[in-house]
Amino acid sequence: MILRTSVKAPNCVEAVISKIRKKAGECGANPDMVEVLYGEMISHFIKIELKEFNKNNETNAG
């Protein structure tokens, strides 16, 4: 059974943010700005995934 916390995957998000901050610094970009941008993108992707998750669980429950 897949749980909502699996969809959010906080450990994966932290790993991505850490990696992208490092890459931003190496490329001369502002790590704080890149973190905010990636954070927003990840947040929106998670919302989309949760909608699908909820839709699929409603379909499978009924």
TrEMBL record:
What processes in GO biological process is this protein linked to? chorismate metabolic process
Q: Acyltransferase: present as a keyword of the record? A: no
Which keywords accompany this UniProt record?
A: Lyase, Pyruvate
Q: Name one GO molecular function term.
A: lyase activity
Q: Quote the InterPro entries the UniProt record gives.
A: Chorismate_II_sf, CM_dom_sf
Entries under Gene3D superfamilies matching the protein: Chorismate mutase
Protein's name according to its UniProt entry: Isochorismate pyruvate lyase
Organism per entry: Clostridium grantii DSM 8605
Its organism's taxonomic lineage begins at: Bacteria, Bacillati, Bacillota, Clostridia, Eubacteriales
